[in-house]
Amino acid sequence: MTAESLPRVANRQPMVELRDVTAAYRSRPVLDRISLAIGPGERVAVVGPNGAGKSSLLRVISGILKPTRGTAMLAGEPIDLMDRRTVARRLAVVPQASTLPFATRVEELVGLGRVPHEDPFRGHRPVDRAAIAAAIDRVGVGHLLGRDARELSLGERQLVLIALAVAQAAPVILLDEPTVHLDIRHQVQVMELLVDLNERDGATVVAVVHDLRFAAHFFGRTVVMDRARIVADDSPARALDAERVREVFGVDADLVRLGLPAAAD
């Protein structure tokens, strides 16, 4: 059963849930009374213009940003009451590629995905080493082994961070614009990998997506954000209709060419 055929969270405990969440950085509001429930096995794209609150939404879901109001839940538990190791077993986060503060080889960076699972006194077990090797192969970064991750291009580093998340084997994967530094071939490969992780592994995938065409083509559900609020949450055909694309993004939908089927009545 694919994500598109799954009923919307009905009668199932959400893997991710925000209940009337408001959040701010200092005095600047970034989320305004957000309520959202994402069930197991869903594949959800979060879209919106710059500054709409998309990255802040992921930070609240992952427990990095604490709401000033409301509650963030992960698999039925308030995330702020969970220790970070437990969170990391349930949720993997792929940020936009950033500067690394220390020298580390690619395989060591991918290996960090196994830290939530490994014995703290014995380090990597055979099962961990197998998971690392499988993640490297699945993402296609084997040719980067042995290199200092700081010396990689942003696109290469982004792929290594995705491999880290795959090695983590968490049931929920959050990604913040995972294709932003990649060429078109690798963009499509990453999107296809997310579909595979969702459909074959059963992972719940939530991704901030910059390209509306990718959101429409590779995801069964689209959350549209604007000015710190959710303004649409539906299938791509409904959430990204021509009127909403004009209102939220300020462009003619014909220029975007989403190639969407007509929404059912």
> Main beta sheet, described?
6 strands, mixed
Beta-strand percent range: 15-25%
Using the CA coordinates, give the radius of gyration.
18 Å
Query: Order of strands across the widest beta sheet?
Result: 6-7-8-3-9-10
- The helical percent reads 25-40%
Tell me the series of helices and strands, N- to C-terminal: EEEHEEHEHHHEHEHEEHHH
Structural class: alpha/beta
Name the overall outline. globular
Could you list the spans in which at least 5 consecutive residues all have pLDDT below 50? 1-10
Query: Overall mean pLDDT score?
Result: 90
**Number of β-strand runs:** 10
Oligomer: single chain
Supply the number of helical segments: 10
Alpha carbon gap, first and last residue: 23 Å
Give a quick precis of the structure.
With 265 residues, the chain is α/β, with parallel strands linked by helices. Helix content is 34%, strand content 23%. It is globular, with a radius of gyration of 18 Å.
Provide keyphrases for this structure:
265 residues; alpha/beta; 6-stranded mixed sheet; 4-stranded antiparallel sheet; 10 strands; 23% strand; disordered N terminus
